[in-house]
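Holo prediction. Input below; ligand is uridine-5'-diphosphate.
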Amino acid sequence: MEKKELLYEGKAKKVYRTDDPDLYIVDYKDDATAFDGLKKGSISGKGVVNNRMSNLMCQMLQKAGVPTHFVEELSDRETLVKRVKIVPLEVIVRNVAAGSFSKRFGVEEGTVLKCPTLEFCLKDDDLHDPMINGYHILALDLATQNELDVISAYTFQINKIMKEFFLSIGIELVDFKLEFGKLDDGTIILADEISPDTCRLWDSKTHEKLDKDRFRRDLGGVEEAYLEVMKRIGLN
Ligand code: UDP
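Structure of the complex:
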């Protein structure tokens, strides 16, 4: 499968058309941004880690019955994926308080939540991805109730699978962000990366951060953290 024209270039990925109208190629970059693009940088090797880790996670989820956009890994940085219409929501799951949740609700970072929780944000950089509730989503016609139910059920299922997997490699899955898309026939599938860019991953014992917070918060050792995650998930 060959790359045709560039369709879209985002902050961390490029998306290309292919000969097949139903398939796109995603090309993962090393570029890193935070705070709505205010902070810019590069994390050497990040594209490779994010591509390979996302593909592994998608395959694991597919085996468990969660449909995803993954079709085939083409190279270290490139993957063939299904074309979808993205549902313009960031779906965030949390097991432990951190980041915006800690700030918004005044809960100390690291507090284990009584049960996993879910929130939706509107995917809109200009508006800084505001939090949005189910009624807003229906009123704005961003998704139907049935689509929201499917997305929520998949999300909690994904959380359960990923939490157990990361625990088995000494990593606490604090929170993460998912995006879903729709195939032409309306089927909802998982349609974005799952990587240290989009997950908070803490070492189970030391609580050392092994994710993009090292970049966001200038903690140093960013590349090393991404490589450590890749090593622990069995990719090298
Ligand atoms: N997240 C993401 N993209 C975003 C916002 C958040 O991937 O645009 C991820 C982030 O890496 C974390 C989770 O979603 O794992 C929850 O992020 P939070 O709402 O706490 O926002 P932050 O503190 O990162 O601004």
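The helical segments are 46-63, 99-105, 134-139, 145-168, 213-216, 222-232. That is the main takeaway for now.
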